[in-house]
Model the fold of this input.
Amino acid sequence: MDSGKVVITGSSSGIGKAIVKKFLDDGYNVEGIDLAKDGPFLHRNYKHHQLDVTEFYQLESLLTNIKYSSENNVLVNCAGTREICPIDELTLSLWEKVFSVNVTASFLSGKSFCQNIIKRKLNGSVINIASVSGVMGEPNRTAYVSSKHAVLGLTKQLALEYGSYNVRVNAIAPGIIRTPLTESYYHDECQLEKIYRGQFLSSLGMLEDVAHAAFFLASKDAGFITGATLVIDGSWTIGKDL
Ligand SMILES: NC(=O)c1ccc[n+]([C@@H]2O[C@H](COP(=O)([O-])OP(=O)(O)OC[C@H]3O[C@@H](n4cnc5c(N)ncnc54)[C@H](O)[C@@H]3O)[C@@H](O)[C@H]2O)c1
Done:
């Protein structure tokens, strides 16, 4: 079965790994890009590229040289980084690092993917993994919050620029999902209490919640959805308990 090709950054861990699994299970060939030497799984349909996405020229060249599918093609920009520090301690170099990974790499890979799909007259769509930090502020995460807001702007702009070629571009804004990035929250009672108080659903966000949404956005069923942000946060952003 050849359902199509997925290229995904940040494939070795957390949300990226769960997305890789979902698409492999559904018969896609997946090429993952990550800082980590190893991919998430040993699987005949998974190919791993060890690369820092801020190696911009290598990233663009990798996207140009991918063997795309005649069925469906998907780029998932999932690699992300964040700082946790008071704004007064946020240096220019840390700000730039967060923006390089979260925004600039997504811009370059998104543009390159769209150009290559259009040139080859193939079907394709892009999914940018943003965050609830792309729609609201959060203490001590000034660069992360600003960068995720930028990812949502980039999503709309790529959707607008490439829409007439039938390439769709959407974003997912997850709330708190248990991954190595957030693992420390789950060992801190005070933090867990804040999470439960910050949302109205009593369940916690699972990796599969995001992976299944990415699969939907990449499918024909989402054929009229572009430039959109799918918030998956158990109600974190809709209001607060007073
Ligand atoms: N976990 C959450 O609660 C949550 C919530 C909202 C948004 N997100 C977003 O989801 C995405 C994935 O987060 P996660 O929680 O799965 O994190 P994670 O730390 O488990 O995985 C991130 C992966 O990205 C890779 N990566 C980081 N910088 C890279 C770089 N420069 N080049 C290549 N690969 C790089 C890491 O090696 C790692 O494998 C991020 O964009 C994050 O901002 C996560």
About this structure: The beta strands are 4-9, 28-34, 46-50, 73-77, 124-129, 168-174, 229-232.
